[in-house]
């Protein structure tokens, strides 16, 4: 009887949170409010402290103390990593280094002969660049300015080109990505680089390779079906662009690569290189090189000031969201509703597959409705270790498909910033973008599940 009650309460609070977010209420406020309310309900029903042995001595004061503990653990751990990493990425955008890197990759891609082979190559290259340019909107718009005109000139429809430039940002992975850092440190308890190289990288590689081929074939078919054989009015050479077009030295395009190269290089030595240290080294290299090039100390000081401002901005937007989501996740965890459901299905044939689908669909639905893959992942991701333990499987088998599903699903959401921005620049309707992208996103979602199951369950 109590099990059914807690399952119903879990569903109720999840639905309340979803409805409030759909009403355009701030996600941070929703997670704080609903999470605190749920913790109070759990405390009232069980008569036990939500802090366990670490109680303050008052059951209801313990609910507030949960928020304090989440703030401390998040800020001193994952939070400071995200603030440093994000500020480095934003500095790269500000200095034009990201544009140079994107243009250099574009110059290589346009040497391919077939328009749709180029389209598949653009997707694969964009997904790789997502490791260094972590903003989906920024990455998509950089490619809009460089690759989009060439794709269209070669005969690819504006619709297909726009969809691919949205989906190059669907993989939230790599040691610089905020949600991946969260997954590594808060869910799997590993370093961001270990999460990237030994866990998520395998699945992402499989999805990227399959989807690059899928996009090339499926969009060639769809363009022919919907638009006929469009002739290119220009060739790629007439629309050639260069990394030299952005007013900074070409070698600045190497700057976004510095942290990842450092972490990978030192992983083969006895020296430990944390992602924060790697980014700090990157800052020093960038500032010194920029000072040599510009001989402008005032500019260096201004950029340094911006770095700290970006850190503060990221704290108020993402780190506080992480704390709020952690409070909500703790409340759902304390209710044990999802654990109870997992226990019910644990003896069923295919229990692991059912759990993978069930949890990833929660993320998928929330991402579609909100346009964000980050918020639902931070809210539900921390539940996976307990569920995996019940099922007797690796946490990664549940966490990875959940995490990647958020990024995949948001590419079909009319509320996603990248969908809105890129559709507008490409002058195509958002509803047409979503319709065209629906089949590929289903394929990517299925591939995500299949690859994860094979790598972390079957093998």
From TrEMBL:
Name of the featured protein = TRAP transporter large permease subunit
Lineage of origin: Bacteria, Bacillati, Bacillota, Clostridia, Eubacteriales
Which GO molecular function annotation, any one, does this entry have? Answer: C4-dicarboxylate transmembrane transporter activity
Q: Which residues cross the membrane?
A: 6-22, 29-51, 71-91, 116-133, 139-168, 201-219, 250-268, 275-293, 313-332, 344-369, 407-426, 438-458
Recorded hits in InterPro entries, A to Z, give: C4_dicarb_anaerob_car (IPR004669), C4_dicarb_anaerob_car-like (IPR018385)
Keywords of the record: Cell membrane, Membrane, Transmembrane, Transmembrane helix, Transport
The source's superkingdom equals Bacteria
Pfam families given in the database record: DcuC
Query: PANTHER family in the record, alphabetically?
Result: ANAEROBIC C4-DICARBOXYLATE TRANSPORTER DCUC-RELATED (PTHR42002:SF2)
Q: Which family does it belong to?
A: Belongs to the DcuC/DcuD transporter (TC 2.A.61) family.
Q: Does the keyword Transport apply?
A: yes
Q: What species is this protein from? A: Clostridium porci
Q: Name one GO cellular component term.
A: plasma membrane
Q: How does it sit in the membrane?
A: Multi-pass membrane protein
Record's subcellular location? Cell membrane
